[in-house]
Each structure stands twice: as structure tokens, then as C-alpha cells.
Design goal:
By secondary structure, the chain is mainly beta. 15% of the residues lie in helices and 44% in strands. Strands 1, 2, 4, 9 and 12 form a five-stranded antiparallel beta sheet that branches. The longest helix has 24 residues.
């Protein structure tokens, strides 16, 4: 064996030894080492995106409930924003004042928590609005929001139109319900 051949063989052995020692000390490559759950530990650095807004309209009778169901399919949802809007009818004439209507809603989350809004009356002659922001628990943020959500909208007391001056023999005009619009959207971390 020539001297050059011995050097090549020795270099080959050294390279093999270095590769074996590196594999033994370094373990698996980083991409294989990380389990599927560990890959997402860095979601906080991902940008926040907003889902498209969803709108549902309906009409409720006084002292009744309407139930809506929707699904969330995105991971890493941070919060859900729900708004309930209604516009009370105007008074029939200058002789009447329309009393406010009241609404509230209850949310049944995908992780079985129940969250209720306050009972809200619209200002006289104006629109009513309830906004509720639901924060997703940090410990379950990866998939806690995924699944079915239910919202129960409660129409409470619908204020009648009452005469401003009762001496004219005017009677109250009954208010039996109101129309409403429910809007919701959510924010989530996304690496796409």
C-alpha cells in the first residue's frame, strides 16, 4: 500500500468516526426530534388574523329565546367577539313615547363553559347593542375553540308605546317583539 493510499484510508476512517461521534452526541436532527405538539410552542410569534365576520338576523317575540349554532374550525383562536344589535321602532306619533326593549344572550362555548351577557335596554328611540368578548383559555389555545358554539338570544321586556299625555284618552300600544342582528368574528394565530 502506498503512502497516499494509507492517508486516504485513514481520512476515511476519521470521517466515519467523526460522523458516528456526532450522531451519538447530537441525537436526532432538530426536525425529527420535535414532537407534533412541540412544533407549535412558538405560536405566539405568529401573526394574529381575523376571521371573516358572520351575520345572522332574526326576529324575537317578547320574553322568548332564539338559538343559533355555529362551528369554529381554526386552531389557536385567542378571542371571539359577539355583537347583538337591535333597533326599536319609532313612536307612532308625537303623542307617544316608545319604551325601550331589552335583550341579552348566553354563549355555550366549545369547551362547555357558559358565558352570559348583561340584560341591556336600548336608549329611548335609539339602537341597542351588546358586545361580549370571550377570551380563549391560554392552556387550551391550540384547539379549545374548535367545535360547536351555541348562542341563545333572549328578548326580554319589549316596552310599549305610552301616551305622553294620558288626558287625551290615548291607550298604550303594545310592543310584542323586535328584530335583531347578531355579528361575530374571532381572532387567531396563523403561520400561513
Amino acid at each position: 500500500m502506498h503512502k497516499n493510499d494509507r492517508i486516504i484510508v485513514l481520512l476515511g476512517i476519521v470521517i466515519i468516526v467523526i460522523a458516528l461521534v456526532g450522531a451519538a452526541v447530537g441525537g436526532k436532527p432538530k426536525s425529527e426530534e420535535t414532537g407534533s405538539d412541540e412544533k407549535f410552542n412558538d405560536y405566539r410569534s405568529w401573526p394574529i388574523k381575523e376571521s371573516s365576520a358572520k351575520h345572522t338576523s332574526g326576529s324575537s317575540q317578547e320574553n322568548s329565546d332564539e338559538t343559533l349554532v355555529f362551528n369554529i374550525t381554526d386552531n389557536y383562536v385567542t378571542q371571539l367577539i359577539i355583537e347583538l344589535n337591535w333597533l326599536d321602532e319609532t313612536s307612532d306619533s308625537r303623542n307617544y313615547e316608545n319604551q325601550p326593549d331589552s335583550f341579552n344572550f348566553t354563549v355555550f362555548t366549545a369547551w362547555d363553559e357558559v358565558i352570559s351577557s348583561d340584560d341591556v335596554f336600548n336608549p329611548v328611540g335609539e339602537a341597542g347593542l351588546i358586545t361580549e368578548t370571550i377570551t380563549i383559555p391560554e392552556e387550551g389555545i391550540k384547539d379549545a375553540a374548535i367545535g360547536e358554539w351555541t348562542i341563545s338570544i333572549h328578548c326580554g321586556n319589549c316596552g310599549d308605546q305610552v301616551p305622553i299625555v294620558s288626558l287625551l284618552g290615548l291607550r298604550e300600544i303594545e310592543d310584542t317583539g323586535n328584530d335583531w342582528i347578531l355579528n361575530y368574528h374571532y381572532e387567531f394565530h396563523s403561520n400561513n
